[in-house]
Amino acid sequence: MSTTTQQKRSGGLRELGKMFGGGQSSGRQVGILGALVVIVVIFQIATGGLTLDPTNLINLVNQNAYVLILAIGMVMVIIAGHIDLSVGSVAAFTGIIVATSMNSWNLPWPLAILLGLVIGALIGAWQGWWVAYVGVPAFIVTLAGMLIFRGGNQFIGNSATVPVPDAFTIIGGGFLPDFGPDIGYSNPTLLLGLAVAVVIVIQEIRVRRTQTRMGSEKAPLWVSIVKIVILLGIVVYATLLFAGGRIGTSFPVSGIILGVLVLVYSFVTRNTTFGRHIYAVGGNWHAAELSGVKTKRINFFVMMNMSVLASLAGMIAVARSVASGPGDGVGWELDAIAAVFIGGAAVSGGIGTIVGSIVGGLVIAVLNNGLQLLGVGVDRVQIIKGLVLLLAVGIDVYSKRQGRPTLRGLLRRNRKNPSPGDQNAVPIERPSVAPTGSAEETSRSQSTTPN
Q1: What is the pLDDT at residue 367?
Q2: C or N: which end of the chain has fewer Cβ atoms within 10 Å?
Q3: Region Disordered: start and end of each range (predicted)?
Q4: Could you tell me which residues come within 8 angstroms of residue 200 by beta carbon, excluding any fewer than 6 positions away?
């Protein structure tokens, strides 16, 4: 087989591997998507069809939208080589202020939402300043923030529950308003599914046209067809499920907010200079600085963005529960971090995707939901979630230490036992990089130390 033929064949498989993860996709990210499908199928059988029941799916989105929103911001923080332990407390702190502003100050709910986002930005700027310009490691800064804003939540709310008006609850427990004739399905959900399907087709056509115009290598036509068929099948099936819920329900508003954020942040991280700089800082902060990347500014905005999303997640959770209380946000940071690592992010930074983190969050959500449907106790649910996280990260670390190829790399091999004379079968020599100092010397927090 010629080198050109092999490159064409592997290029098609490579494009299939990128389908759900872009240029940062890895075998583990594709594998976790398959694991999600397997988990759904297992629970669908074990629960007698309750897992994919329309009502259960709608509740699944409403119950986990805030965690998935947190995962979007957390993956950017982890890609940059940091961690944020304060997101749950920031969400609770913002939630109690927003609830109090509407309940006691009679602030209209749209202005209350704006107030919450401003508070999140201020908190993020405060923590980002300590991380980026003072040089305190993000772990310490956000650990302090977790304590500060948890105490602030209890101080402002007097450790009591503060209700919110009904109009505010739409962002956390509302649905698309129904209209049109009664056909047995939610009309707005059907239209939303149709719009998503059209966008998928148009986007694939635009990508191929752009590749042709620029003269760059593009995947074979069959790859695009398979990609479109798979995605359209998923969209159609999901649309019918969400549109077939009980009367008065449709696709949740919180799910639409989540979908918009996924699209926006996926574009930012994959197609903008700012997004590429986040990966550069997390991959090798010193090389990024030498290349002219303003690492302090990147770290500052990554931390601030996380707090803004935490505030939004907190408001959505308060809207769903119709009140803000002292128990809000407890353990949220752990769920968000787990979603990111299960979704394929690297512990050392520099690797991860928005879509991968969403898939990781869905794995946790489906596990929680399925085990609850089976009547498994909360104690055992926590044990299972911990084992899943440990296994996911452990496999990744072990594979890297052994120098094993990813699933995509295995698919690209045209033979299992190549002949010694086959020049295409020569293994790639991987350089061995040894650490030059202690763990503290090689930590990502050094990238934030002022010069």
Answers
A1: 92
A2: C
A3: 1-20, 411-451
A4: 228, 231, 232, 235
